[in-house]
Write a structure and sequence with these properties.
This protein is of the alpha+beta class. It has a two-stranded antiparallel ribbon. Strand 1 and strand 2 form a beta hairpin. This is DUF1648 domain-containing protein.
Length: about 60
């Protein structure tokens, strides 16, 4: 199961890295009540892609023991 999760995370990261070149330079992150949005660089997505997987693995490992 652990190997399967690692492979899925790796494939997701590779696909996202390949599609990053098709994205615009700035991506809207969220919009406030006034309608103004904050934007981030497209490489921000690559930086935080592994975060959900790492959190998931940490939680699963905690409850397995």
């Amino acid at each position: 199961m652990k190997k399967k999760c690692i492979i899925i995370t790796f494939v997701t990261f590779v696909v996202l890295a390949a599609l990053t070149f098709l994205l615009p330079q700035e991506i809207p992150l969220h919009f406030g009540v006034s309608g103004s949005g904050s934007v981030v660089n497209k490489y921000f997505i690559l930086l935080f892609t592994p975060v959900p997987a790492i959190l998931y693995w940490a939680i699963v490992k905690k409850y397995k023991n």
